[in-house]
Write a structure and sequence with these properties.
By secondary structure, the chain is α+β, with helices and mostly antiparallel strands. It has one domain. Helices cover 26% and strands 20% of the residues. The protein has three helices and five strands, in the order H-H-E-E-E-E-E-H. Strands 1, 2, 3, 4 and 5 form a five-stranded antiparallel beta sheet that branches. The longest helix is centred in the last third of the chain and has 15 residues, at 110-124. The chain is globular, with a radius of gyration of 14 Å.
Length: 137
């Protein structure tokens, strides 16, 4: 069995994003010109399925005010992986994150997460992970 490389996982994730993997309330704002936009939570969950580690959530701030949250992964030894950071312009600040435990029951966005998970698994030639939990905003 060939081991997965991080570059292979990254390619599979990036090629699996679409408007349909965004939260339903933001789909109309998604664009192929900024494919990482609105993908952070589902991407973080899929990477957590594949790599383990911790889920990290920071505040998105524009002009000093929180406008949203941003999610990424932290692996052992403090290594952060954030495949969606480039979605933000220069005027956006993402605060230092806090670890958010992954709850045992699925809250949201279930359909979008499952769709991204299944696409990534297919691109990697893997079976989808067993049902995993999501994180409330």
């Amino acid at each position: 069995m060939t081991p997965l490389l991080l570059i292979d996982i990254e390619r599979a994730v990036r090629s699996s994003w679409g408007a349909d993997t965004c939260p339903s309330e933001t789909r109309a704002q998604w664009s192929p010109e900024n494919p990482a936009r609105w993908q952070c939570l589902v991407t973080t969950l899929v990477l957590n399925d594949l790599l383990g580690g911790e889920l990290v959530r920071g505040e998105v701030r524009v002009n000093g005010e929180r406008t949203d949250y941003h999610w990424w992964n932290r692996l052992g030894m403090g290594v952060d992986i954030d495949l969606t950071r480039e979605q933000f312009g220069a005027d956006v600040i993402v605060t230092e994150g806090v670890i958010i435990p992954r709850p045992p029951t699925f809250v949201r966005p279930r359909e979008e997460y499952e769709l991204l998970r299944d696409r990534v698994a297919a691109r990697l030639g893997k079976q989808p992970a067993v049902e995993a939990a999501s994180i409330p905003r």
